[in-house]
Amino acid sequence: MGAIKGLAAVVLIVKDPAAQKRFYTEQLGLEVEADYGDAIFLRCGEQKLALFAKSHHPEGTARLEGAPKGISHLEFMVSREDEEELSRRLTEAGFHTYRGNFQDADGNLFHFVTE
Questions:
Q1: CA-to-CA distance for 52 and 57, rounded, in angstroms?
Q2: pLDDT at position 1 over 80
Q3: Which one is the CATH code of 6-114: 3.90.1150.10, 1.20.1530.20, 3.10.180.10, 3.40.605.10?
Q4: Between the CA of residue 8 and those of 15, 27, 88, what are the distances in Å?
Q5: What is the per-residue pLDDT across 49-67, written as a single tens digit (0 to 9) for each?
Q6: Tens-place pLDDT, residues 81-102
Q7: Which sequence spans correspond to the domains of the chain?
Q8: CB 3.0–4.6 Å: which of 38, 91, 103, 110 could bond 53 by disulfide?
């Protein structure tokens, strides 16, 4: 069975990416790893915190069921071999949603990031 090695990122849908960027950098001291305007990636130890505008991830935004903000999706760190096995197993079980994305039993999105 494939092994999850940890979270690569937690992705938040936010109302105001610039304000959230200021909060996480100025108040919590996180470093900006990448800033695309509507998607900002912050280094949080070995993981990332991503701040997405609603427009950046329509599928993740739709999963919020009308909430103005919240978690878009999780990114799990796995080996390349485990990613192939987990993806196959989840697809066969009916949890594949689109491209490399899957959903849990409540419809929360996640995908895998390989080392």
A1: 7
A2: no
A3: 3.10.180.10
A4: 23, 22, 20
A5: 999 999 998 988 898 999 9
A6: 999 999 999 999 999 999 999 9
A7: 6-114
A8: 38
Phi (first) and psi of residue 28, to 5 degrees: -110, -10
3-state secondary structure the chain: CCCCCEEEEEEEEECCHHHHHHHHHHHCCCEEEEECCCEEEEEECCEEEEEEEHHHCHHHHHCCCCCCCEEEEEEEEECHHHHHHHHHHHHHCCCEEECCEEECCCCCEEEEEEC
Q: Are 38 and 53 in contact (CB under 8 A)?
A: yes
Q: Which of 113, 109, 26, 35 is nearest to 65 (CA)?
A: 109
Among the listed residues 36, 35, 44, 52, the one whose alpha carbon sits nearest the alpha carbon of residue 7: 44
Could you tell me if 60 and 52 are in contact, meaning their C-beta atoms sit under 8 angstroms apart?
Answer: yes
Distance CA 3, CA 78 (A): 7
